[in-house]
Amino acid sequence: MSIPTDFLERLKEIAGPAYVITDGPDLEPYAIDWRKLFPGRPACVVRPSSSALVARIVQACHESEIALVPQGGNTGLAGGAVPDASGRQIVLSLNRMAAIRNIDPVGMTIEAEAGCILKVAQDAAAAAGRMLPISLAAEGSATIGGVVAANAGGVNVLRYGMSRNLVLGLEVVLPDGTIANGLRRLRKDNAGYDWKQLFIGSEGTLGIVTAAVLRLLPRPKHSVTALLAVADPDAALRLLELVQDELGDQISAFELISQTSFQLVAKHAGLKPPIAEGEWFVLIEAASSLAGLREAAEAMLGTAFEREIALDGVIAESGAQAAQLWALREHVTESEAKEGKSVKHDVSVPLTSVPRFLVEAGQALASGAPGTRVNAFGHLGDGNIHYNVLVEAGHDAASINRIVHDVVAAHGGSISAEHGIGQYRVGELERYRSGPELEIARKIKRAVDPQGLLNPGKVLLP
Ligand code: 2HG
Ligand code: ZN
After folding, report:
1. How many CB atoms lie under 10 A from the CB of residue 288?
2. How far apart are the C-alpha atoms of 231 and 14, rounded to whole Å?
3. 5-93 fold
4. Model confidence pLDDT, tens digit, residues 215-226
5. β-strands 222-230, 312-315: how paired?
6. What would the pLDDT profile of 401-439 be if each residue is shown by its tens digit?
7. CA–CA gap between residue 129 and residue 426 (Å, rounded)
8. Over the Cα atoms of the chain, what is R_g?
């Protein structure tokens, strides 16, 4: 059964006929994720220009029992923002709602609409002398609404936390079309349940984020970027301890990158690290408003060599060199995609278990899925490794997931540290989260979205 024509007409009345796409090439980018792993078939795409119009569209869906899939920049890695193939779900794109409504440099807040590109918000904060510290490779196309709905992580979580930690206020359209306006800019607000937390990270299954107030931070005057080679992940952990001792809370990123990752970047992006070949690399960023950071970083590097924790290393001499070091890290995902098919795992384990996890997962794959190659990299400072398995035809993704996730579970880890569940990990979550935890989630879903119309099939099985 397809969507009734009169419903599509109603959407056109609400959003304007130019903003309802029902077919043709314009529909394509909304129908599938960027890795082309989760092809869907939307009944239509609707692109409203205001929260009031989002509310009217959702109300129409509620009345006609039509399911809808909210979509921001469509940069997700778990298929959370694309519809299924039934032809009965509509995509509600927030990309026309891109305004920055307010920046308060003294109160250190920014209020932006859901469709505002993350990079645009970062630049606006910088122009006001402040910093929005959410930073990810997809920041040029990811949107504020998507970042909040997915509780995005990125490279600065070590210092500033996940997106959740930076959200002060939220406006959400609920599944019946009501607007819940909690766009407060308060640092302290302990008045009753903090309901916005439910929607942050809910991946569009409970409500549609239409605007958010985010915390800003002072813009550090000095920063240091260093790339070090280490023998193994154990050495990388010892380096983390040293860096924490020497640079304290000035560290904002501590990224682990395997030799395989850099080989892929050399092959597909033509970029090479400016230090000797090693099995593992660590990219460190520290920032401070106080002088003396570089001296502290140089002393730390000296100690790392003395104690034979680091095999080689370089500290960027300029902003341009720092950008080159970061480009090596930021090209990993794209280079992996160019190499061929991969089965991604976005896992976290307790920090001290990371080296064991890497060894055990490698052994389990060598016996359970011979012929696969591992591209491991990620946010070591957060215990979050992107343990991506490069596969050939004939390898079975589901059994590779099982092999890796069993090792994660044995270490008390999580099957998604930052990318979320979407549709990709919905079955895995059922397996690895306990019954009572899943039941809490289902109760919340039933209470907030009793008709199950918001992003069905994502995060939770019905
Ligand atoms: C990153 O850390 C992103 O670069 C993408 O989270 C990770 O491609 C991936 O698996
Ligand atoms: Zn990541």
Report:
1. 19
2. 60
3. 3.30.43
4. 999 999 999 999
5. antiparallel
6. 999 999 999 999 999 999 999 999 999 999 999 999 999
7. 41
8. 23
Tokens of 71: 């979509």
Q: Which tokens go with 307?
A: 């104690």
* Whole-number Å distance between alpha carbons of 45 and 23: 9
Q: Are 365 and 403 in contact (CB under 8 A)?
A: yes
Cα separation, 43 vs 87, in Å, equals 5
Residue nearest to ligand 1 atom 5, measured at CA? 333
H-run or E-run covering 20: strand 20-21
With a Cβ cut-off of 6 Å, ligand 1 is lined by 137, 333, 344, 378, 386, 388
Q: Which ligand is nearest to the CA of 77?
A: 1
Max Cα-Cα span within the chain: 74
How far does the centroid of ligand 1 lie from the alpha carbon of residue 45, in Å? 27
DSSP letter (8 states) at residue 117:
B
CATH classification code of 100-218: 3.30.465.10
Model confidence over 240-290: pLDDT tens digits?
999 999 999 899 999 999 999 999 999 999 999 999 878 999 999 999 999
Phi-psi domain of 161 (left: phi exceeds 0; alpha: psi -120 through 50; beta: other): left
**CA 411 – CA 417 distance, rounded (Å):** 14
The residue with tokens 């994660």 is: 408
Indicate which atom in ligand 1 lies nearest the CA of residue 330. Answer: 4
- CA dist 92 and 221 (Å) reads 40
319 burial type by CB count under 10 A (0-12 exposed, 13-18 middle, 19+ buried): exposed
Q: At a CB cut-off of 8 Å and minimum separation 6, what does 130 contact?
A: 103, 105, 108, 110, 216, 217, 218, 219
- Distance, in Å, from the CA atom of 34 to the CA atom of 31, rounded to the nearest integer, reads 10
Check the CA dihedral 253-258-261-267 and report its sign.
positive
Ligand nearest to the CA of 283: 1
Are 375 and 388 in contact by the 8 Å Cβ rule? The answer is yes
Q: What CATH number does domain 340-418 carry, 3.30.70.2740, 1.10.3720.10, 3.20.20.70, 1.20.1090.10?
A: 3.30.70.2740
Q: Does residue 99 contact residue 171 with C-beta atoms inside 8 Å?
A: no
Give the number of whichever ligand sits closest to the CA of residue 348.
2
Q: What is the pTM of this model?
A: 0.97
Q: Ligand 1 centre and the CA of 153: distance in Å?
A: 10
